[in-house]
Amino acid sequence: MFVTACHGNLLRELDGQTPRDVLTAAYEKLNARDRELVGHSLFIGLAMPNQGPSIPAGDFLVRNVLGMDPQSGALWVGAKLEANSIVQFHVRDALSSAQDLERALTRYRSEHYATPAGALLFSCVGRGAGLYGTPDHDSNALRRSLGELPIAGFFCSGEIGPVRVSPSPWPYQRCRPDQPKAARPESASNPGVPRALGRQRAGTYNRAPIAW
């Protein structure tokens, strides 16, 4: 969706409609599970400038939805916006984040043939038992993929990582993206941890491990 009207971090229009109307229409198309996620875990992803005809997963910076203006239907978000930029709504999603980590590990194995002596694993605080319902999710996935290697690391409340060629802060590293789905209009503030609304997957919350 294109930002057609904004001021600072106030999102006034998306494709000529108020964000409330866009979210309401999208919400009606969601299944029960996604509606529940939108109710408490709605975020907005900002596409990086100078994108091509398609935007790869991971090229969205995810930021909080801070609140909604009940009169105008505009949204306050946790980032400065620019007119004509592309945005996408996200929600936090355990399944998508787990799949994203598996893809990262598969890609690592395809590019590195030597068995690493160990790994450093830095996971977002949005992950862990609170997201997956069981401890050691990421470290177990790492060992399943790379073997019984020693792992060190910690949980982080954010990181600095690349988006295309520019370093950017990632308080919410990954999420699942979709075509704009909707949040309940009455749910004004939705701080949480993201995934995008729809079937296209944007990301999950964990950087690929650094192995040596």
Q: What's the quick description here?
A:
Helix 3 (about 95-110) runs parallel beside helix 5.
Largest sheet: 6 strands, antiparallel
The helix/strand class is: alpha+beta
- Quaternary structure annotation: single chain
User: pLDDT below 50 for ≥5 consecutive residues: which ranges?
Assistant: 173-212
Which percent range fits the helix content? 10-25%
Inertia-based shape: elongated
Distance between the termini: 41 Å
Task: Quote the beta fraction.
Answer: 25-35%
Q: What is the N-to-C succession of helices and strands?
A: EEHHEEEEHEHHEEEEE
**Adjacency order of strands in the biggest sheet:** 1-2-5-4-3-6
Radius of gyration: 18 Å
Helix count, per DSSP? 5
Q: How many strands?
A: 12
Which whole number gives the mean pLDDT? 77
Secondary structure layout plus pairing:
Blueprint: E1 3-7, E2 10-14, H1 19-28, H2 32-40, E3 42-47, E4 60-68, E5 75-77, E6 87-91, H3 94-111, E7 119-124, H4 129-132, H5 137-146, E8 151-156, E9 160-163, E10 166-169, E11 176-177, E12 210-211
Parallel strand pairs: 7-8
Antiparallel strand pairs: 1-2, 2-5, 3-4, 3-6, 4-5, 7-12, 9-10
Helix pairs in contact: 3-5
What does this structure look like?
The chain is α+β, with helices and mostly antiparallel strands and 212 residues long. The chain has a domain at 95-160. Helices cover 24% and strands 27% of the residues. It is built from five helices and twelve strands. It has helices spanning 19-28, 32-40, 94-111, 129-132, 137-146, and strands at residues 3-7, 10-14, 42-47, 60-68, 75-77, 87-91, 119-124, 151-156, 160-163, 166-169, 176-177, 210-211. The strands form three sheets. The chain has a six-stranded antiparallel β-sheet with strand order 1-2-5-4-3-6. Strands 8-7-12 form a three-stranded mixed β-sheet, with no helix packed on it. A two-stranded antiparallel ribbon has the order 9-10. A hairpin with a 6-residue loop joins strand 4 (60-68) and strand 5. The termini are far apart. 38% of the residues are buried. Mean pLDDT is 77; it is low at 173-212.
